[in-house]
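Notes, p. 3: input format for complexes.
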Amino acid sequence: MDEVMVAVEAVKKLIKENIIRDYTLDRPTNFDGYQDLYYQTNENIAEYLNLIDLTNKENALCVAGSGDQAFSLIYNGIKDIELFDVNKFTEYFILGIKKAMILKYNYSEYINVLNKLISQMTMPSEINEILLDLLSYMEEPYKTFWQTILDYNNHLQKEAKINTNFMYGLNVNAGLKIIPQFCPYLENDTNFNYLKEKLNTANIHFKYCNAINLADTFHKKYDLILLSNILDYAYVYWGNNWHMQNLNNYISDLQKLLKNNGIIFLHYIFYASKPFHQSDFYKPYIDYNSETYDLKYNHQIILVRKQESVKYI
Ligand SMILES: C[S@@+](CC[C@H](N)C(=O)[O-])C[C@H]1O[C@@H](n2cnc3c(N)ncnc32)[C@H](O)[C@@H]1O
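Output follows (313 residues plus S-adenosylmethionine):
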């Protein structure tokens, strides 16, 4: 079986599992393989990108996630983006559905269709119309993938008599409303049109990769590295009582991927219960040579800049 058909079978399995579970939320903690995914970011990307000067920044190594980090970077003039993720479905969603939606729709249509995809109330026939409209904006292999999923949706309705929006179940953050101000390109229609233009000349590639192996997998130098809140799951690799040395070694490795003046967006923190510097949970991060910024909604971001120290050579 070729790779696209492997992906199709894996996502069909996810759809079936969602039906059997009656669409109750099943948020993964091990994201590996083909998994439900985030249709939209839950991070205030607009605010943290504003913290740094993006002039002359050209490329980025970036978690795939919902794609909002990548599209926000492209909006900000970053042309070359290497996406990585352990969830292989992110590639088909971002470079298939989401990219096609940006290219096809105007701002209000985009928000409207995203709302339809995430709503349990949307009729499956309407989802098929949306997918059909988007196919001509997709490149291979994404077109074949979504055409086959569309056919499967028809089968579910006609033969299995399943009358729910299968896209609803594939969204991890079901129930979360779209927060346009989190993404610079979703702030208004002018910004959205600006991204649309930039998208035509941007290069985005996807590679299946665990964040823990970035330094062994990628061999270029980047202006920016975006890790989202992946380190919330560091215990999976480093054990429950991971300490400063793990993080130190990890950052030393990532430094090798940075250009001069490069920046790592090391970790996004949600709803810090105490001010960052008093929190035991996040203590390992602050011993390191990092910068922490408070964001709106009690979120925070930790940045690490390229160190010129010989220890990273
Ligand atoms: C950590 S999740 C959380 C959502 C995120 N806050 C956002 O705004 O998109 C983001 C993405 O990280 C991916 N991920 C989680 N652990 C990973 C790892 N160890 N390596 C690579 N990707 C990982 C997930 O598959 C998911 O697509």
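The two ends are 43 Å apart (CA to CA).
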